[in-house]
Amino acid sequence: MNICIVGTGYVGLVSAACFAEMGNHVWCVDVNPDVIKTLKEGKIHIFEPGLEDLVKRNYEDQRLFFTTSLKDGLDKARFVFITVGTPCSSDGSCDLRFVENVAREIGQTMTDSKIIVDKSTVPVGTADKVRSIVKAELEKRGLDLEFDVASNPEFLKEGDAVSDFMKPDRVVVGTEKKETCKEFETLYAPYARSREKLIFMGTRSAEMTKYAANCMLATKISFINEMASICELVGANVREVRLGIGSDHRIGYYFIYPGVGYGGSCFPKDVKALINTAKEVGARPELIEAVDSVNNRQKKMLSRKILDYFEPQGGVRGKTLAIWGLAFKANTDDMRESSALSIISELTEAGMKIKAFDPVAHIKAEEILRDNDLVEIVHNQYEVLEGANAVAVVTDWNQFRNPDFDKIKEALLAPVIFDGRNLYDPSYLGSNGFAYFSVGRRP
Ligand code: UGA
């Protein structure tokens, strides 16, 4: 099949490479000439395990093409996927400017029948909006071309995006047209091998499904974080409680790991956007508002513990904290809405110096934090500890899971660990002379 993908960000590039890998011909369009140039050199501008090889191979085999011209991309394509950014406006609503611009351009450029697909996360009703924009542009040109606008939300996780695309739990397609369903069946047959994995529904339900899924997952995380806070106060251990509740099939073990709160480009934005949509239509989204506020509190949980610990020692001013992990989770260089940024901002405001290490996000971190004189990015996991008063583990990178505790002790001024991901065993650290603070477990 011939496919055009507009927007070579995270979702766009992963989808393009994975569609090409199954033999489709895919044209990737991006307005940024630098991005297209980099892609043509066989390099990618985002960090995602396995993606660079996939892009390079399919580009060399001429199944993947890169262009800045929407016309070139559209010409042969039957499917046109819109995968441009949908940033959050200051009021929490979703900014659709880029999606609308692409829709306008498609209407101004297309010369034959197309299936236009919204793949970016967009508010309910966007497919209808895109349809009217394309129709209006076609009318201006005096054309009456057949087209459909479908919704096919993406459920990729950063760090696992390629395998999530290749072996999806489900593929959701929203369309009102039977013929469109058939073409989607052909497109997704190599990925959604069993029929149950391909779920067809109305466009508005598909758009809502994406928000409902992310809000459900965010709710699980805020729920377990709230349980963790209560566990600490009543003397229970949240790790044990997680095992106890997760064994019930109706609850499950996944996405109930307590931590430093959820970050990234999806959950915080999507929870806020659904709150906004709900209010616009007169609903009272009390539960997801609470999910959002529990998360805001949780992002400050570790810095609160650090401030409380140093309070009797004259406070944090002039002291140094080493941080392990800046990305919002492991296996990504993404620092958007990362809890590390909230922790750094709160502690440097109180005068604490920060030395931070992240195996992958260090380059982005240097850029993002360059105006904060109290922050230094260090490129070695153990050197970052030298002369620090304590270390805080913020991202769950594998290389932090089983570290050399003797080396940690030697490098730090005092053996103090604040663990935002519950990576270590409190009794082991206690018996080895560490002061150890984690989430939902008493020191
Ligand atoms: C999320 C969803 O998991 C994907 O299904 C969805 O497609 C994607 O958003 C999107 O909307 O595009 P992602 O943001 O990549 O994916 O990251 P997750 O792995 O879901 O983690 C989100 C945050 O929750 C991270 O900060 C992570 O550390 C935190 N988390 C996750 C926890 O604190 N506890 C958990 O048990 C799980």
TrEMBL record:
An annotated GO BP: UDP-glucuronate biosynthetic process
Annotated UDP-glucose/GDP-mannose dehydrogenase C-terminal domain residues: 322-426
Listed EC numbers: 1.1.1.22
Source superkingdom: Bacteria
Protein name: UDP-glucose 6-dehydrogenase
Signal peptide: none
Pfam family, one: UDPG_MGDP_dh
High-level lineage: Bacteria, Pseudomonadati, Thermodesulfobacteriota, Desulfovibrionia, Desulfovibrionales
Keywords: NAD, Oxidoreductase
Binding site for NAD(+): D30, T86, T121, E158, K269, R336
Annotated NCBIfam families: NDP-sugDHase (TIGR03026)
Pathway the protein takes part in: Nucleotide-sugar biosynthesis; UDP-alpha-D-glucuronate biosynthesis; UDP-alpha-D-glucuronate from UDP-alpha-D-glucose: step 1/1
GO molecular function, one term: NAD binding
Catalytic activity: UDP-alpha-D-glucose + 2 NAD(+) + H2O = UDP-alpha-D-glucuronate + 2 NADH + 3 H(+)
Organism of derivation: Maridesulfovibrio ferrireducens
Listed Gene3D superfamilies: Cytochrome c1, transmembrane anchor, C-terminal, NAD(P)-binding Rossmann-like Domain
Family of this protein: Belongs to the UDP-glucose/GDP-mannose dehydrogenase family.
Residue numbers annotated as active site: C266
Sites where the protein binds substrate: F155, L156, K157, E158, K210, F255, I256, Y257, P258, G259, G263, K329
